[in-house]
Amino acid sequence: MAIYRSHVLVCGGTGCTSSKSVLIKERFEEKIKEINLDKEIQVVLTGCFGLCEQGPIVIVYPEGTFYSKMSLDRVDEIVSEHLNKGRIVKKYVYHETDEDTEKVKALADIDFYKKQKRVALRNCGVINPENINEYIARDGYLALGKVLTEMTPEEVIKLVKDSGLKGRGGAGFSTGMKWSFAAPNKADQKYVICNADEGDPGAFMDRSVLEGDPHAVLEAMAISGYAIGATKGFIYVRAEYPIAVHRLEIAIEQAKDLGLLGKNLFGSDFDFDVEIRLGAGAFVCGEETALMQSIEGYRGMSRNKPPFPAVKGLWGKPTIINNVETLANVPQIIINGPEWFKSFGTEKSPGTKVFALGGKINNTGLVEVPMGTTLREVIYDIGGGCPNGRAFKAVQTGGPSGGCLVKDHLDTEIDYDNLTALGSMMGSGGMIVMDEDNCMVDIARFFLDFTVDESCGKCTPCREGTKRMLEILDKISEGKGTMEDLDRLENLAQTIKDTALCGLGQTAPNPVLSTIRYFKDEYLAHIVDKTCPAGVCKKLLKYNITADCKGCTKCARICPVGAITGKVKELHVIDQNKCIKCGACMDACSFHAIIRK
Amino acid sequence: MQKGLCVKEKENEFRRLKEFIESKKETQGIMMQTLQEAQNIFGYLPIEVQKFIADETGIPLAEVYGVVTFYTQFSVTPKGKHKIGVCLGTACYVKGAQLILDKLSKELGINVGATTEDNLFTLEATRCLGCCGLAPVMMIDDEVYGKLETKQIPEIIAKYRG
Prior knowledge:
The complex is a heterodimer of chains A (597) and B (162). In chain A, 39% of the residues lie in helices and 14% in strands. Chain A is built from 24 helices and 17 strands.
């Protein structure tokens, strides 16, 4: 293997790829070749670095210089200054504030990374995910080797059980327990499935693991297969993740070539094979029974449990289904032992959790922190708080199945039990921050609109109930709601929670219940005062013309319903009874004289 | 009404699909893969294609149709030349994706889910595209447009009309 004096790591995650990081990588290679340094400097496309807000990101080693918001022009300067002459280009280095532009901080000292502990993401942004040798150099497939040559399946299950690892996909069920249910069942064929149908809008940790460290998932699947006696694995991944699918295909191919997947792994009599199956855009397929239906080639509709998949799963055979992030922890646990894993996090929820920070937050991106870290640390210390000096209002966790948490909860230690107690849930780890400009009735409506659309339609509470809830919320957001509607909404929510068939329906009312719980005043403002305090709900907005109006008549001419009147060079007026709130006047006004409130 | 598909004109496409189905004879649960391949070949899944799949695989047509209409990825109507997908994931939504979608709908004169009369654009609201750092985001074909503001929309659309 060639030795290089410098490495240029270019982020190849979906966020940075969307802002053309592949072109940046090519430009680096081209420019480095021009000055004949291509034997000394290697350019690598890696997985996600996490700080997506600052993308495209480039890190130069051995210095660990963190260049942010890269562009092709900047590449040229960095190659000629930094790589050729050894002078770091300070002006392009990532700075936490606008004042400290002279300081160059090492990666580990940047606030965004300081409080993080990377276990599931340990290789993301470090290795080239399309080269199995880089994974092996980072102890890859060591755990599989250890398991196959030194341990019995029972010992593997006990070790995972002892570590206290819980499913990172949402419900938080003990992974070791799950495996132990499937292991004793006798069958001619058993299956393991990796659930990579990451549907929670705003959560992208599973995608980042698949894109940045695909072999960790394959290795863990083989380990789980050995533990329960399965020789066949499926990865069910969203078709919307083309980069992840592509890298998985490469990874499977390379692992097969090296005999790390296939027959007689590590000279044992254990065979294991993995196949990729693509989803087709159905949120409910993240639910395990629906997911199996989809793999079998049917409509992805969930069914009653029991029988649990561990007894009767894919094609009626014992099956275990684990989420991507859960699996990414497994090889580390095998190598370092359960005590090491338990040294992070809380007693009941050991280990770390990856969160996708998004919405109204300065450092949008992917963070991995020990369980028990407070919301304040994640949102302020790591996330940098809300942009533009706006006030923090709420954070939504758990996506369409979760709820919102407010200012008073900022010092809550994040773990499964604490979040559930507050009416939200861990979910897959999406964390959407909202500021004072977001209307909570509108957010509840948004999530319900999502679940109505994604309900598989099998059970009545979910199919009909969520639809009725959405209608009531529509009414409220249009200013036509009554106090009885609010009671009806809560009643209906409780009934759906108690009676829906699967997790999707049982959790669908959560966003509504939690917004009513913490933002009742906002609901009342919509119902009683017929106003939307955040200025979001269209039907409750009013357009008005201010004294800045120059009387140019542009708005009057553009108004589709003739609601604006006024003489040339005089203040114009909007007739509120005629106005349809289309906003055309506001777009047209050159003097910013029309306001919406 | 679905537009009919002239089976004769598409002989090559049907042959490709048949070859795919035959190559997967030994694989369990091939319905989804077959439909995905068929959509790649034809661009959409008209009833003629569904019938063909039913005949070739022995799966009842009703079941094929059931699966096609269950998943949002599959379409039974043809799409415009350029597909515009506005991300309505939560991160984009709280940053005003709905306003972007409304603006596009106005600019193109079509509702969400529809195709323009000249078959140039299909406007869709998509699930989370996963580039939340660039919110609000839209995709036109394979091109991603991030940190969008409504005022940029006419200019971007004009580029594709050009």
